[in-house]
Design goal:
Strand order of the largest sheet: 1-2-3-5-6-7-8-10-11-14-15-16
Structural class: mainly beta
Shape: globular
Strand content: over 45%
CATH architecture: Beta Barrel
Number of strands: 16
Length: 266
């Protein structure tokens, strides 16, 4: 068993590192006009142990209260092994499909532009790429969005739970994750918002071949800044997060640049 674990350790390191999730963005829980939207998320995470660069392409469709989305990450990552060598992987990550519905929380049984609640469920499908592994996953998530009547600030909060099934190639079953993410943006002018972001994540122990691997659980608390600018019909968002507490891993820095624009009006 020990020999088998040593063989899959580089694979395990890649799978864990590839899970670096995005911070919640401003207006993630907001209801835009019905139509089809394209989003591009370029992210970079760097610590002493690993480096992860990912471009995630996303299409999201809004129709009344319904939301449907598809995500496909493309990128590469590098993880430092105990012997100071590096294990790397590049390619296409796992395909993710998500569906959800805004809650009809106002008296007109329609979405409320000033306050929205959006529960969603995401299912991950393996592409068998070294970047994503050969595993299915499921992630229920709920988003809260609040904007003041005077549009002085906007607040977005997300709670996410992620469950991964066993990788059919490596026999690795990643520990489940629970995260709480929040961001608040204060008006600079009618096109710009700036504010703080805080994230917390807890990860359970990983299993290999049914055996629980000690010291593979983790907790991370991150803080940073978010800057949003709207140019014509395109929203651009810059996020910086710094790990301020980690249970077992080195602290790292997370950078993200996101663009969102409408490609079809219903």
């Amino acid at each position: 068993m020990r020999i088998y674990i040593m063989k899959v350790l580089p694979i395990l390191a890649l799978l864990i590192s590839a899970r670096c999730s995005f911070a919640v963005n401003l207006y993630d829980g907001a209801k835009p006009p019905d139509g089809l939207y394209f989003l591009s998320n370029l992210s970079h995470y760097k610590s002493a142990e690993n480096r992860n660069v990912t471009e995630t392409l996303r299409l999201t469709y809004y129709d009344s209260l319904f939301v449907g989305t598809v995500l496909l990450p493309v990128g590469g990552l590098s993880v430092k092994n105990p012997d100071n060598t590096n294990t790397t992987a590049t390619g296409v990550g796992n395909l993710t499909l998500g569906v959800g519905s805004f809650l009809p929380i106002n008296k007109d049984n329609q979405y409320n532009k000033k306050f929205n609640i959006l529960p969603m469920i995401f299912v991950q499908f393996p592409t068998r790429s070294g970047f994503g592994g050969n595993q299915f996953g499921i992630s229920p998530q709920i988003y809260f969005h609040k904007i003041t009547d005077t549009d002085t600030y906007a607040l977005d909060v997300a709670a996410k739970y992620s469950y991964k099934f066993r990788d059919r190639d490596s026999k690795v079953k990643l520990g489940s994750e629970l995260s709480l993410e929040s961001v608040i943006g204060f008006n600079i002018n009618d096109r710009m918002k700036l504010g703080p972001a805080v994230n917390w994540m807890r990860r359970e122990k990983t299993q290999i071949g049914g055996a629980v691997i000690p010291n593979t659980d983790d907790s991370i608390v991150s803080g940073g800044l978010n800057f949003l600018v709207a140019v014509s019909s395109v929203n651009m968002e810059f996020t910086y997060m710094r790990d301020v507490y980690t249970k077992r891993t080195e602290k790292g820095n997370f950078f993200q640049f996101r663009m969102m624009f409408n490609i079809w009006d219903k």
